[in-house]
Task: inverse folding
């Protein structure tokens, strides 16, 4: 025993399916010109984006966070600024890839963007060590002279030096790393003077 309404739904399925199929094919044919237009627009956007990434990479290499020498504070600020721009570029790239797939366009790799992501990741690790050093020295600077613990100071400086030594060789060859390492070693080199000053004699 089947309710009449359910039976009608079942028997109407073939007609409903044929009607839906015809509608979808008709709509697809009507969209041929529209799809062609969007394919062209997407192709142009892809070319423009690649040109922008080429300029972005050139700017990054000329005046990015790895070009400021000893001014590590400014380099850190610039890295954060470039990361924001890079996040936006990665978002645009994802949208373009989706559009290319939607309109059956070839998806070619974005080499300049890949290089930018890799370089930013490397510099991020190096500046991460600088941030660790900066937080440590800022904490020391805020400590009263009488409360300064020399043992903790020396252990922290040793830890930063060990972090430098654990860095991969390819990162050690980057000029920014050498500046960070030199900054840490210079601080550690000043510790004997602090120890002498803390001595009651």
Result:
């Amino acid at each position: 025993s089947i309710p009449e309404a359910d039976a009608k739904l079942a028997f109407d399925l073939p007609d409903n399916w044929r009607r839906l199929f015809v509608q979808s094919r008709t709509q697809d044919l009507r969209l041929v010109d529209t799809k062609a237009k969007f394919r062209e627009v997407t192709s142009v956007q892809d070319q423009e984006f690649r040109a922008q990434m080429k300029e972005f990479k050139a700017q990054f290499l000329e005046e990015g966070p790895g070009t400021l020498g000893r001014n590590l504070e400014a380099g850190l600020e610039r890295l954060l600024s470039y990361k924001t721009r890079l996040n936006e570029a990665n978002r645009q790239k994802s949208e373009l890839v989706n559009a290319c797939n939607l309109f059956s366009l070839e998806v070619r790799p974005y080499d300049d963007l890949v290089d930018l992501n890799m370089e930013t990741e490397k510099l991020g690790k190096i500046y991460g060590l600088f941030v660790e050093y900066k937080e440590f020295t800022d904490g020391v600077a805020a400590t009263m002279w009488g409360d300064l613990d020399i043992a903790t100071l020396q252990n922290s400086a040793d830890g930063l030096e060990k972090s430098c030594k654990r860095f991969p060789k390819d990162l050690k060859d980057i000029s920014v790393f050498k500046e960070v390492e030199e900054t840490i070693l210079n601080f550690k080199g000043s510790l004997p003077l602090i120890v002498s000053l803390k001595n009651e004699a």
In short: The chain has a mean pLDDT of 91. Residues 16 and 127 are 63 Å apart (CA to CA). Residues 32-63 form the longest helix (32 residues).
